[in-house]
Amino acid sequence: MERIKSQHVVLFPFMTPSHINPFLALAHRLVRHHPALTVTLVNTRFHIQCIRSSSFPSSIRLRSLPFDPAAHGLHPDAENFATVPNRQKLTFLVASESLLPAFDQLIVDIAREDGRPPLCIVADFLLSWTADVAHRYEVFHSVFIPGGAYGMAVFVSLWTHLPHLKTRSDEFALSEFPDTTIHLSQLSRFMLLCDGTDPTSGFYQRLISHWKETNAMLVNTVDEMEATGLRMLRKLFLVPTWAIGPLLISSHSVASASQNRCIMEWLDSQQPASVLYVSFGSLCTITASQMMEVATGLEASEARFIWVIRPPSEFDSNEEFKAEWLPEKFEERMRERGTGVLVHGWAPQLEILSHTSTGAFLSHCGWNSVLESLSRGVPIVAWPLLADQPHNAKMMEEMGVCVEVARGSMESSKADRTDVERVIREVMCGGEKAKDMRRRAEAVGELMRAAWREGVGSSFKGLADFFRAAASMGDVPSLSID
Question: What does the sequence similarity comment in the record state about its family (predicted)?
């Protein structure tokens, strides 16, 4: 690593916390292990301001790019993808491509300041157009995938071929991976509405074509956990691909310190592995009818729980929560009995999952949540909603660390309160299946911890190999796929 000590690395995450956080974790690792390395993290003004207001190392440079959401028909303050209404998600994705000229100028400015271009650009997979900028200035480029390898490989194959349009069956194989079978219920409504000529298909086709121009791929996963998924990605893109996960960082709370303290104190009062943590992530939520089923099933299961709850998907995510979306006086009953805590908005997820009282996680199976849960040895009750989430859930079920309670997109997934109650009892009541899931989850957690062991861990070595390839620019070894 000596050759890269005086070099400059540019990190560019997509504009949403679930993508920014893994980049922040990567930045932390870079400056900790290589203090002479210059690391610049790029984003729009809103997110740069949020990062600056947190306890972020001053050794990491922050640069903002101008972004005008209103010019694209978005709300003037719409800089965070997580808070953009579902009907405008595609508009935001397409609008992100307008950052290209400003990013190009930023690379020119860095080259002028340093007297040479950066060593490498590491960009979010949703910003893969940055490969064009990198090649223009002969800079090594890597796509960074904040998600898992298997889920992303399936996602790419589906958007490339839209195989569900070529069959009348509810099940079909992937073109590049005939042994991988997908069920129609694992596809989101957005994909089901596409025919290959629509704007959504057009965006993903552009995205994937840019991926093919990158020099390398970095994935927020662990070699020992995702050997199959990594092989699939390498087959799709034929570039060096390294696992450098888990990259985890505790999100900074927008809630009060007193609320966070109350949550942790309540956990302190519970028995070991007795609490179910429920959250559908920062980008996803369920419908009002599904919310009612979850609440009813939770209460019937008699399990203790913490539920991070936001307005249903039919409503504005910033709207004040209404009691009518839950069974009558549900929150009051849970509070009086001491059996459940409802958190409106944000909760310290990693801290909750790290607590000995947390026994399982009812999750949408977004990859950050998967890594946070398994890194703490906490098994998962899966309710995947969209994108790579159903494929993440499938992989985890095959690993024996997860059981699925419902499946499908935000608009179409169905779950019965009886199923919710049954699955929660199965996972939380200490039977042999629950014990086996926890043992397996703890074993995966140990693999994750081992991946970053100094000098010997697979992710530690993967990142070192990546920098050797970047330093050799133009001499990256070709990859043979067996």
Answer: Belongs to the UDP-glycosyltransferase family.
User: How far out from the chain centre does Cα 196 lie?
Assistant: 26
pLDDT in tens, 238-268: 999 999 999 998 765 444 566 788 899 999 9
What domain range is 372 assigned to? 257-448
pTM of this prediction?
A: 0.91
CATH number of the domain within which 207 lies = 3.40.50.2000
**Tens-digit pLDDT profile for residues 34-62:** 888 899 999 999 999 989 887 677 789 99
3-state secondary structure of 422: helix
CA distance 287 to 251: 26
Same domain as 306, residue 228: no
Same domain for 138 and 261, yes or no, is no
> Among 381, 389, 432, 440, which Cα is nearest to 410's?
389
Beta bridge partners of 380: 361, 402
Looking at the structure, do residues 292 and 206 belong to the same domain, yes or no?
no
* Half-sphere exposure of residue 317: CA atoms within 13 angstroms, side-chain side: 19
User: Does residue 481 form part of some domain?
Assistant: no
Amino acid symbol at 46: F
| Half-sphere exposure (Cβ direction) of 52: Cα atoms closer than 13 Å | 12
Contact 461, 247 (CB under 8 A): no
